[in-house]
Every structure is written in structure tokens, then in C-alpha cells.
Amino acid sequence: MSKQRNLIALDWLMPVLKDVFGELNQLLQRHDAQPAWQLIGQHLHQITGALALANQPVLSKLAKTLDKTTIAIQQETLSPQYFSQISHAVRLLQFDIEQVQAKQQIHTDWVNDRIAYFEQLLGIASSYEPIQAAADNTLLFLSQLPTPDIKHPWDSAQADELLKVWRYTSLQLLQNATNDSKHLDALTKVAGYLSQASINPAWRQFWQLVAVWCNNLTLNEQPAPTAYASLLNSLSLMLTHDLILTPDITVSRLAVDVLLALNALTYKSHDAKALLSSLDINSSDTLDNLFSQVLEKLEKIIYHVHEPLTILALLESVKNSLANRGWVFYENQMAQIIDDVRLMTQDTFMASSLSWQVERQLQDFYSQLLSTVETLDSQIGLQHFAYASNPQNEAVRQTRVHVENIKRSFNQYIQTRDLNKLTVNDELIATIQVFGALGLTRPKELVEQIRLLFSRIHKNSVHVLSWEASDAIADMIARFELFFDYFFN
User: Fold this and answer.
1) How many beta carbons lie within 10 A of that of residue 480, not counting itself?
2) Cα gap 51→10, rounded to integer Å
3) Using 50, 70 and 90 to split pLDDT, how confident is the model at 374?
4) Residue 404 gets which letter from DSSP?
5) pLDDT band at 126 (very low <50, low <70, confident <90, very high)
6) What single DSSP character describes residue 152?
7) 355-to-164, 295, 336, 350 alpha-carbon distances in Å
8) Where are the alpha helices (DSSP H) in 304-382?
9) Peptide bond into 130 cis (omega under 30)
10) 270 has pLDDT over 90
11) Where do the structural domains in the chain lie, given as residue ranges?
């Protein structure tokens, strides 16, 4: 594999992937026409290739399997009834790509299970073998949640009545075409009742998750009921199961779909955020940047370069982080450095001369990585604005709009004391990226501080700020508006 190929990693491809997923999700969210299977397949084919280049074989295989599924539907060898399953699998694929970039990890069991599911539909001999029997390998991620207390007995005859309520209420939601609280509250009560019934503990955890999702839908205008109708239908089928028995792998798969649907909501309650946090599914405002972590670790390693036993663990950590993100070229360089450091621990006579060599290698590595970070900021940062005759001016213009939204959101939060009004993390991240692309280091750092401050306000549920703090933040946002006016002119 060439050096150029090695350097094509996920970080370089993320802007392109985000654009492709944006177009793909638009196709999958259309409910007024027949699915455009050929276009859907083309987008999945692009994603497959990009993930292969980024050295993400498991995720690439899922994308490729989905691509094969769309081809089978086009050729009428597979029924188009699996449209919703494809949509949910695409959401899982996009979610885990973001997890790889932000946290250097994926949910391998979830992805492998989805691959096996579609391979079975296609009649392909699956290479995925469940680690445990289906009866045991179910809802493992939900076992991390507290099991709701039992508050009432369960009679299987109740399932028929609850099923009727669920289906009738779901139909009313679809007819109204809005997330009206009356019907969503009814669904929340059904799920909540099941979570406290004397049924299998895994089922109680499952229905508790469903109750949280239904409750949080009332906080959001989007998605509309048509977008989650398939989930409601799948959940109604769960009421036909024997809830005393341990749920099977299909229930686990549905639980993942509900979990990711909850995670995708713009506005979430405190309970929802706590649930997602307990499963280590965090929004992007809590995710650390890979390169800042690696560069910080390298500084510590260089400082302690004469202590090989001390730095070996840090070097392994850096190597693993780069490997998980697809930076194969840098991973190989780090492997060579680790070999030299191990030699230092084995041969005290050569240790002094090797330490000088290792220090020089680390300094060169640090410089290369820093150069890559600067290239990512400068060359990729403005690529979303390439359609404009002057991408820089277009970036500044759109960022002014982001700052205006930030100001309006903050003012609404101050006036209403409603934390749901202070949801501008995406705007802040977009502003940070543009400042980085323009080489404006100090403004970039200041906006990052504002983002962290807003994140802490949410984390600590601060509904009322002091007058001094409110005035200082408002003044800082106003200064950014003035800065953009000056910069644009």
C-alpha cells in the first residue's frame, strides 16, 4: 500500500461522507414516492469505497452488504418491503462512523449482526457467528441500565388490550402528522406500564427505553410520525411475544434502532441524556479531538524519552488511536519507534545512543502530525463552500448566520430559563471549523471556550445565570458579530 493511500484516512473523507449521507438520508426520508433504489445504491457504493480507503473493513462491509441489498431489490429478487430495515441500518452505519472518528471505537456486535441479517436475506453464507446463543446474546447493552421496579402483576391477556391501544394511537399520530403530546403520552404510558409489569427483566428494560423515546418525541417537531411509523409498527409486533420469556436477537436489533432514534433527536430530556450517557453514547459536544490528544501525549513522551519503561504504554496508546482511525502510515511509523524503545529497555549499553535517535524520530513525527492537522484545517475546512466563487467569503457569510442563531438562542435561554432553547452546538462547531480553516487561532479558541461553557450549563442543568455571567457572554457574542462585520468588509 502506497504512502499516499495510507494517508487517505477517515478524517480526510469525513466532509465527503457527511455530504453523501446527507443526500442518502434525504432519499430514505421521502415518503411521497417510490424509493429511488438506484440512487440509494450509488450512494452506498460511494460510502463503501470511502470506508475501504479509510481502513474501516467492518463498516465498509456493512455498506457493501446494504448496496447488494438495493441491487437485489432493483432486480426484483428481493422484496422492497425491507426499506425501513435498510434505513435503520444506514443510521447505524452513520452513527458508528462518527463514533470511530470521535472515539476510535465502533459497536462491532451491532454492525456484525446487521451484516448477518442482510446476508441471510440475500442468501449469502454469513461469516458472522454469534458469540453466544441467541437466547443469551440479547439486549446486552441494556443490561447496563437499572431495571425498573415491578409495580403490578402481568397477565398475558393484557397484551391484546395494550396492542389495540398501541395500534389505534399510532394510527391517530399518523393521521395528525404531528408529534402531538396527547397520543405520544398514551404510547409512553403503555411502554411505561410494561416496564413496571412482572415480565422478564430484559423486556422491562426494553420497554423503559421505548417509554423514554416516546416521551422525548413530544419535545421535537421532527421527525414527523411518517418517519418513525415503521418503528411504531415493529414495536406493536413485540406485544405479540411472550413477555415472560427472554427476548430474542430480533428484539435486541429493534432496541438498537430505538436507541439510535432517541440519540438522533435534537431535544432530549434529562432522563434521556442520562440513559445515553450510561451507555457511553454521547453527543459530539463531549467528544475529544484525536489529534489534540495525540499531540499532547507526544509532548509527554518526548519529555520522558530517557525513561523507556515509562513511555511504552503512552506510545502503544498513540499507535492504537491512529490505527483505529485508519492512519496506517503514521501507525507504521509509531510501530518502528516502539521497537526502538523496546531495544532501549533490553540493552542498557545502547540505551543512551538509541534515546537520541528515538527523540529525533518523535520530533519528526510530531512535526509531520502537526503539519497534517494544519492541512486538514486549511484545505478541507473550506471545501463545503467550494460551490461559491469566493469560498472564504461564503464561509464567513454563513458563519455570521451561525453567530446570529447563537445570539438568538442564548437570549431565549436567558428569558425563558429553558435549557432546550440553548441548543447551538452544531453552530458553534461550524464556527470553530471556519476559524480554523481561515487560520484565526485565537477566535477559534474563544468560540471553543463558549462551546464548552454551554456544554457545562447543560451538563449541570443551570437554568439561571448570574447577571454578570449573562452580560459577559452576551457581550462576547456581540463582539464576534462586530468582528465578522469588520472581517467581511
Assistant:
1) 22
2) 7
3) low
4) H
5) low
6) B
7) 73, 19, 14, 8
8) 308-324, 328-346, 348-375
9) no
10) no
11) 3-122, 141-285, 290-378, 385-488
Distance CA 103, CA 288 (A): 7
Q: Are 287 and 101 within 8 A, CB to CB? A: no
Burial, 146: exposed, middle or buried (Cβ in 10 Å; 0-12, 13-18, 19+)? Answer: exposed
Find out whether 239 and 163 touch, Cβ atoms under 8 Å: yes
Least trusted range by pLDDT, from 83-87, 104-108, 296-300: 104-108
Most confidently modeled range among 30-39, 160-169, 286-295? 160-169
Q: What is the DSSP code string of 170-185?
A: HHHHHHHTS--HHHHH
Q: Residue 197 phi/psi, 5° resolution?
A: -90, 160
pLDDT at residue 210, as a whole number:
94
What b/e readout covers 18-40, taking b as 16+ CB neighbours within 10 angstroms?
A: eebbeebeebbeeeeeebebeeb
Collapsing DSSP states into helix, strand and coil, what is residue 248? coil
Instruction: Give the span between the Cα atoms of 54 and 6, in whole angstroms.
Output: 8
Residue-wise pLDDT tens digits, 211-241? 999 999 988 888 889 999 999 999 999 999 8
Long-range contacts of 472-478 (CB under 8 A, 24+ apart): 473/410, 474/407, 474/410, 474/411, 474/414, 476/446, 476/450, 477/403, 477/406, 477/407, 477/410, 477/450, 478/407
Q: What is the pTM of this model?
A: 0.61
CA separation for the pair 60, 55 (Å, rounded): 9
Contacts of 25 (CB under 8 A, 6+ apart): 90, 94
Q: Is 197 helix (H, G, I), strand (E, B) or coil?
A: strand
Q: Which of 270, 250, 273, 252 lies closest to 262 in space, CA to CA?
A: 273
Residues 66/72, Cβ–Cβ less than 8 Å: no
Question: Could you give the count of Cα atoms lying within 13 Å of 341 in the half-sphere of its Cβ?
Answer: 26
Predicted local confidence at residue 293, as pLDDT: 73
Res 358 pLDDT > 60: yes
- Comparing 29-38, 150-159, 163-172, the range with the smallest average pLDDT is 29-38
